[in-house]
Fold:
Amino acid sequence: MKQKLFDDFKEVSAKEWKQNIQYELKGADYNQKLVWESPEGIKVKPFYHVDDIQPHAAAHKEVLAPWRITQHIVVSDISLANKSALNAIKGGAESILFTLPSVNVDFKSLLANIDYTSTSIHCQFESILTGDVERFANSTQIEKEHISFHIDPIGQLASKGNWFINMGQDLQNLYTLLQIPTTQRPKNIISINAALYQNAGGTMVQQLAYALAHANEYLNHFGSNIDTITFKVAVGSNYFFEISKIRALRRLWKLLAAEYGIVSDCHIEATPSKRNKTLYDYNMNMIRTTTECMAAILGGANSVCNLNYDFIYHKNNEFAERIARNQLVLLKEESYFDELQNPAEGAYYIENITDQLAEKGLLLFKDIEANGGFLKQLKYHTVHKKLKESAEKEQEKLNSSQEILVGSNAYTSEKDMMKDQLEVFPFLNQRKEKTLIEPILERRLTETLEKERLKSEGWQGK
Structure:
């Protein structure tokens, strides 16, 4: 088709659009009526124009690798984990994320009959001990270059308050793994648990800045010994902002990596947020996780690992895992989310928000570095205090229904409210339908109250 469409229509400037909107408002204030401010301090306008994007956005064409459906498997028994992995792959998983007790496991049995060429293998560990690392470094039982490791001692410190062993030994263990010849070591060694900051209530600017500062601590220690880094991010319900957040993170990594002579792109693994999931109306979680996975895909995540709709009260089970995986299969095979290359590119709104998030994240990162770096701010609880402040502000909005989630948080029923006192038990019994989760809730509340009583009497056990 040689004839161009819309040639007969003249271009409309941003100024003309705004003038027409102000006319239609009939005297009402434009900023008060139509402009709202996000928790990140970004003022969102009712429309966006080509003038709102920076020149680099129109000129830069980013090529992203296809995203992969990821299944998370906690390994307690090697043979059962292998069976679960093969079943997940048969059901549509293209990547497996194992959580393992340590580096010293029988990988050959764990990965038996798994085709490495078509399925990505990722391993994260509950403990990193020196002896286990040394044994792994000297082992030849598997082709290590087919595996990616997710080792994050700083993330362990941020979430648990302790290193795996201590700072010096943990960093030495990482260095030992990084010294394995490239063809004999895992494709990736270091990961950044940025999901921790989202689930703790941090704003998107905080998430980006803390993730970057977190990564910079490793780069300061290991420099160009690091090939690339995996960022684990949690995706919330602010759809377009979450798309922009992931795009901004990739942009900021390239900026930081270039300072250390690293040219490789980062790997971004996305999972839905745990902050906005509901306990009583748990089927609503499927809608929330679907939109969050969509945002992750459109933002350019390399792998997406969905949350089970019943994860709050139920251990991993085959049915919930299949449903979570099928949500991603539907997005890929029925909604064609794998057909377009970087579909968010060029959208004025998304490009503008991406630029602002990246700029604000970079400013906060520079402030962290100017005040001693990320580890120092962890040590003096600065990060924790900032996250707590942001979480409290977010909770206030949810409690007052200023923040409307996908679902029904603005229209809650007294029957769906949980009390903190012991009277919750007769309250639950009075409900017309007793659900399967209520005995679980009762047991957990009883255990919590009993622990509080024993603690008050001086008992120090766990």
Q: What stands out?
A: Strands lie at 36-37, 43-44, 68-74, 95-100, 120-125, 147-151, 188-193, 230-235, 267-272, 303-305. The chain is about 45% helix and 10% strand. The CA atoms of residues 421 and 449 lie 9 Å apart. Residues 348-370 form the longest helix (23 residues).
